[in-house]
Amino acid sequence: MKIHNLSTENSIVNQFVAELRDVNIHNDSMRFRKNLERIGEILAYEISKTLTYSTKNVQTPLGIAEAPLYSDQIVLSTILRAGLPLHQGFLNIFDGAENAFVSAFRKYKRDHSSFQIVVEYMSSPSLDDKILILTDPMLATGSSMELAYCGLLQRGTPKHIHLASAIASQQGIDYASQIFPKEKTTVWTAVVDPDLNEHSYIVPGIGDAGDLAYGQKI
Questions:
Q1: Which pLDDT belongs to residue 120?
Q2: Dihedral (CA of 91, 159, 121, 110) sign
Q3: How far from chain centre, in Å, is Cα 129?
Q4: Which of 56-60, 115-119, 149-153, 194-198 has the lowest mean pLDDT?
Q5: Does domain 2-51+72-214 correspond to CATH entry 3.40.50.2020?
Q6: Mean pLDDT, to the nearest integer, of 57-83?
Q7: Which residues, at least 6 apart from 72, have a Cβ–Cβ distance to it below 8 Å?
Q8: 85-143 tens-digit pLDDT
Q9: Cα angle: 183, vertex 187, 189; to 5 degrees
Q10: Helix, strand, or coil here: 144?
Q11: Which among 93, 99, 89 has a CA at the least distance from the CA of 13?
Q12: pTM of the model
């Protein structure tokens, strides 16, 4: 499994990630969503370099121009609700892609001592022989990605799987490398954080991405 960590090289992504983390900016939900969207656009651009291309002729007012255009069919998938801003960034770049959505959430015990990931809803086109890009702003334990992927497999077998997140934990990456098919899965993230706390939140991380983007839930 290939891992692409954008933080290994300095770029504008560092600023977007820093603002996602900054508690002094967390009260600005619009900026939080916009930074996730920007990271999604950059990750999408990087993924575009790995696609299959073929040359097409384009008619201009003055002649014919050759253009290498990607020929893969792409399905953009995300996990509701936190994944929506990151998904929008990808959709801004792959504007002709098909889309899939999975509703997955942490269902805690009453004492919040533990939780299980519950999937309640899924909407997806056929995935057969297509490029599946599965996005979630936080790759923490990897369980949400796993359940979303297993659910999406009901819609077919993708040609390649790209897992994309703004922030990943090392534990989540290690888990994904065990679960997803190694020969056709690539992980993309803006940064990798070293730890998970007792509640399985990434440390230092950003907190709850869904709450920061859309407000606290009951």
A1: 74
A2: negative
A3: 20
A4: 115-119
A5: yes
A6: 96
A7: 51, 52, 130, 131, 159
A8: 999 999 999 999 999 999 866 565 666 555 556 667 789 999 999 999 999 999 999 98
A9: 170
A10: helix
A11: 89
A12: 0.90
Burial (Cβ within 10 Å: 0-12, 13-18, ≥19) of residue 111: exposed
Task: Give the sign of the dihedral formed by CA 24, CA 30, CA 31, CA 33.
Answer: positive
pLDDT given for residue 216 in this prediction: 84
Kindly provide the b/e burial profile for residues 2-31, where b requires at least 16 CB atoms within 10 angstroms of the residue's own CB: ebbebeeeeeebeebbebbbeeeebeeeee
Name the nearest CA neighbour of 189 among 17, 15, 12: 17
Q: Hey, what are 160's tokens?
A: 């390649």
Q: 71-99: per-residue pLDDT in tens?
A: 999 999 999 889 999 999 999 999 999 99
Query: Mean pLDDT, the chain, as a whole number?
Result: 92
pLDDT, residue 62, reads: 98
How far the first Cα of the chain sits from its last, in Å, is 37
Owner of token pair 């790759």: 139
Kind of pairing, strands 53-60 and 63-70? antiparallel
Residue from 107, 108, 100, 93 nearest 79 by CA = 100
Whether the CB-CB separation of 78 and 134 falls below 8 Å is answered with yes
Q: Indicate the domain borders of the chain.
A: 2-51+72-214
Q: How far, in Å, CA of 12 to CA of 192, rounded?
A: 16
Nearest to 189 by CA among 31, 34, 47, 19: 47
